[in-house]
Amino acid sequence: MAASPWDQRYAGAGYVFGEEPNDWLAEQSARLLVGGRTVLSLGEGEGRNAAYLAKLGLQVTATDQSEVGLAKARRLAALRGVGFATLQADLRDLDMGVERWDGIVSIWCHLPSALRRVVHARVVRALKPNGWLILEAYGPGQLALGTGGPKDADMLADEAGLKAELMGLEWHLAASKRRQVAEGQGHAGLSEVVQLVGRKPGVLEEDQHCSSRCDCV
After folding, report:
1. C-alpha to C-alpha distances, 59 to 33, 41, 120, 127, nearest whole angstrom
2. pTM value?
3. Which residue of 24, 96, 106, 158 has the fewest C-beta atoms within 10 A of its own C-beta?
């Protein structure tokens, strides 16, 4: 298999986006600790977010197209004393399953718009009822700022567009804003971002509890 541009980018000794988790993910991660613990991290790269989630006790699968990045992810996991699964895969081909994951994480996972729509439809199918999606992505205005992310406008989406692609989720948090991002050399400076936290509708725990003990009328 020919080396991808991401293999080349991750080939250095350092961590391109740093070793600490994305701060939006860290702020929202407590949601993933309620209920089941299986989490899929899309476009995980060098493992900083997966290592953080695994430290919380979550069962994480980190997927990325770059085996070079995932090798560094495994090294970071060893340094942190945690474990998580790694899966080298192109998102064009990745079968996420149906109602398989309690949580899916998408942090700076930018794709061409046609592929992004397909992947986001798979995300909704792959979440279990009551499962969470935590997402942060660069918005269209990021091109002018130039502090990280794709240089192709087709790979950037606004809040309304992302919500439409992820139809079927209930939105608990949604924001479009500019904020300072400090993640290694790759993401540094004032950035335009979209932040989303969505939940797949499902039977509430209290309803499940009731149905197991009584006849509801």
Report:
1. 10, 11, 21, 15
2. 0.92
3. 158
